């Protein structure tokens, strides 16, 4: 019998206490090293930008950087190649505030920043920065979210840049008061369900439950599953809620109703009834009003906008069971985003 299995309780507690101290120290060292590395790259980027790449001296700056890269890679390795140095300059140009970088580098590695600085759009870049910190994404998860065009599929992306920046700041400072638009998507990519043709709503629900972990990953990490086909009684009649979740950051119950075809206006009355029941019987004193996601295979955008469902805490979204090629997906989502912003601008103009 091993000695470790025979340790008395005081010795076992002592072992756990010392182990925790060691692990904590290791984690602290890793964080400190990462932060020092990131800030070093930021300072190199600042030096390159202010001393070489200023006043439109791109051609001269490129020649200097190539010579510099040869010397640095010989002494310090491939991380200081020409592409590495230009990456550091880009890092400084998109994140010029040292205090902001110092804060972010406590939770994000250099590899995170390498992915994020590829993004030219400022609101989109800030979205991935804040969500990566807030959700503690690994570099792999960050890449997957970017490849799936998470920003373009999130409801907040349809809003003006000023509102996006305000909501992201709210997420950073008061996450409990964040807007649902930061966490709700359209469309939801459910290609992993592997459903056959002519499936029913029950088949769709069962497929989701069989791969619940991946479904929650697509929903978002703050969704917690609470139940399926929850029976409620209203006026002597039984009703069943398809899927019920709780969102930890929003502090709300989230009802998900599954529909096979296109969205129909009469779905609104049904879901409003469910939300009122949840608010009366399930909502806790410290929670906000429940919200609903109606997942459909299609929708008429004009119908959805005329019904102003967001005001009733109802979000309509499509689910895609088959993904088009990446180029087609990008084009479709970009087009939908531009059209949504144009419609929003027209509505604002008409109301003035």
How would you characterize this protein structure?
By secondary structure, the chain is α/β, with parallel strands linked by helices. The protein folds into 2 domains: 1-113, no CATH class; 183-321, Trna Endonuclease, Chain: A, domain 1, CATH 3.40.1350. It has 14 helices and 6 strands. The protein has helices at 9-51, 58-76, 82-94, 98-104, 110-116, 122-134, 139-147, 150-153, 161-173, 201-210, 212-219, 267-281, 301-307, 326-351, and strands spanning 188-189, 223-234, 237-247, 252-258, 291-296, 314-320. It has a 6-stranded mixed beta sheet with strand order 1-6-5-4-3-2, sandwiched between helices. Helix 12 links the parallel strand 4 and strand 5. Helix 10 (201-210) crosses helix 11.
